[in-house]
Design brief:
This protein has 133 residues and is an all-alpha fold. The protein has a domain of 93 residues. It is built from 4 helices and no strands. The longest helix has 49 residues. The chain is rod-shaped. The termini are far apart.
Length: 133
């Protein structure tokens, strides 16, 4: 593919400005991590960076598609709760809760069986006590 030097120069100027803007916008997130003003979870951090990484990967793929002459991809916006990472973590959380509930139910059933056995033993003990009096 032959490169038009005028278009390449325009690309280099605009790309430099835009990449620097993106880098600046990412860098201004960093002080939020050190501030007492904000509270966040590991899931929040994973979700933010997964969204940024996905956008970065999609944008890179768009440049590769252009070089290869392929079709354009769709744009996406970030919103908490919409990323694949969060959905995967939520699914793991739900699975973990279900496992805990199932375990609690099993323990409860065993406890009920043990209480019934204790009641039977107490009844037998009471009967033995009545017989021996």
């Amino acid at each position: 593919m032959e490169v038009n030097e005028q278009k390449r120069q325009k690309f280099m100027e605009n790309a430099s400005k835009r990449v620097n803007n993106v880098m600046h916008n990412i860098q201004i997130l960093e002080p939020m991590a050190r501030s007492n003003t904000y509270d966040f979870t590991r899931n929040d951090v994973e979700e933010m960076f997964a969204a940024m990484q996905e956008t970065l990967d999609n944008t890179k793929a768009e440049f590769i598609r252009k070089l290869e002459g392929s079709a354009k991809s769709e744009r996406k916006a970030f919103s908490f709760g919409q990323s694949k990472v969060v959905n995967a973590l939520e699914n793991k959380f739900v699975d973990s809760v279900e496992t805990i509930v199932n375990s609690a139910n099993a323990v409860s059933e065993n406890l009920n069986e043990n209480v019934s056995e204790v009641n039977n033993i107490e009844e037998v003990a009471g009967n033995i006590e009545n017989i021996t009096e």
